[in-house]
From TrEMBL:
Membrane found in the keyword field: no
Coiled coil start-end: none
Family designation: Belongs to the cytochrome P450 family.
SUPFAM superfamilies recorded: Cytochrome P450
Cross-referenced Pfam families: p450
Record keywords: Heme, Iron, Metal-binding, Monooxygenase, Oxidoreductase
UniProt name for this protein: Cytochrome P450
Gene Ontology terms for molecular function: heme binding; iron ion binding; monooxygenase activity; oxidoreductase activity, acting on paired donors, with incorporation or reduction of molecular oxygen
Length: 391
């Protein structure tokens, strides 16, 4: 039996499927890869609980120990901080937390605004433009590359590798991209060592070479994770958010009239169409119960922020975009110790981008019917491949 999450219609619009599954209960047993049953968490309260449950491990190395997966992912990708539990996760996360605090992000705001304006300067009123290619991709790529110290001439390659890493159903392409980006970061680390600068990557090198709290493998893995995770979800946040506003012109007009509303609107946009549809892999280290469903030890568990954020028990009338809604409790960034480290940066980039677009292009509209938009072919990420508009 195939999983409903593999249905092409689910990739285009997952929310009817999520609603149908959730109507049978907040946790569903689903067929998983290799014939092993997995469990999908679609209820809000249950998802929040599962995100914080230490009995759900993210240590994929432990889960797949002794199994031949047939994959050739570079360890820098397959064994990143995302795939660790405490105490390793605690140690690794602590080393980079300071770069993404609200204060640190506040210092980046002028730079983010300047990059946004330079990108929007290329938009010509009346001429079709792809929001993804011209804004939603280059803005977060430029910012995270600037933060890490990635040279400008390498940034197109970084984006291409990152895109390939999320090529669902193409394991050979994904594996190859993992080696390309890991090899690149290893080379960049070597170059930074020869001439340390004020980048985040240089700071991590100082930690590794000074206090030895990072192994060389951990350093490369952390750099790769920051590079990839530092822009992929933000691209989808900007793309999904602007699409939602274009489909609700009254809401877009409100943002033009009330630019101070943008920060809270970002929370509602994150809730309404979450950039991460189904969170990364977890498994039960012991038998446990979530939402009255018993999950056996060793079973994979998938938490769906996209479903939880439209649970009517938490968000009434969840399929309606409502800029007056208090959506701060959404789970688009996860919850607990694995909550997205870069959430403050992603929110800042989205707020600046959406405010600028609304202000500078009052006649912006979709260039094609929304039904013709192509969505990414992955249950993990939720985002359009392109977003043609007329400024």
């Amino acid at each position: 039996m195939s999983s409903p999450l593999q249905d092409p219609e689910f990739l285009r619009n997952p929310y009817p499927t999520y609603a149908a599954l959730r109507s049978t209960g907040p946790v569903q047993k689903l067929p998983s890869a290799g014939g092993r049953s997995g469990y999908l968490v679609t209820g809000y309260a249950e998802a929040r609980e599962a995100f914080a449950d230490s009995r759900l491990s993210k240590d994929t190395k432990r889960f797949f120990a002794g199994q031949d997966t047939g994959r050739n992912l570079h360890p820098a990708v397959s064994q990143s901080m995302l795939a660790t539990d405490p105490p390793d996760h605690t140690r690794l996360r602590r080393l980079v937390t300071s770069a993404f605090t609200p204060g640190a992000v506040a210092r980046l705001l002028p730079y983010i605004a300047a990059v946004t304006d330079s990108l929007l300067d290329t938009w010509v009123p009346g001429e079709q433009v792809d929001v993804i290619e011209s804004l939603a991709v280059p803005l977060p790529v430029t910012v995270i590359c600037q933060l890490l110290g990635v040279p400008e001439h390498d940034r197109a390659a970084v984006r291409a590798w990152s895109n390939d890493l999320f090529a669902a159903g193409q394991p050979t392409l994904v594996d190859a991209a993992s080696h390309e980006v890991a090899d690149y970061m290893s080379g960049l680390i070597a170059a930074k060592r020869r001439a340390l600068d004020d980048s985040l990557l240089a700071d991590l090198i100082r930690v590794r070479d000074g206090e030895d709290r990072l192994s060389e493998d951990e350093l490369v893995s952390l750099a790769v994770l920051l590079l990839v995770a530092g822009h992929e979800t933000t691209t989808n946040l900007i793309g999904n958010g602007l699409l939602a506003l274009l489909q609700a012109p009254g809401s877009l007009q409100r943002l033009r009239a009330e630019p101070g509303l943008v920060e809270s609107a970002v929370d509602e946009l994150l809730r309404y169409d979450s950039p991460v549809s189904t969170a990364t892999f977890r498994f039960a280290t012991e038998t446990l119960v979530i939402g009255s469903t018993e999950i056996p030890a060793g079973a994979p568990v998938f938490i769906a922020p996209g479903a939880a954020n439209r649970d009517p028990a938490r968000f009434p009338d969840p399929d309606r975009l409502d800029l007056d809604r208090d959506a701060k409790g959404h789970l688009a960034f996860g919850h607990g110790i694995h909550r997205c480290l870069g959430a403050p940066l992603a929110r800042a980039e989205a707020a600046i981008a959406l405010r600028a677009v609304a202000h500078r292009f009052p006649h912006l509209r979709l260039a094609v019917p929304s039904a013709e938009l192509e969505w990414q072919h992955t249950r993990l990420m939720r985002g359009v491949q392109s977003l043609p508009t007329i400024p």
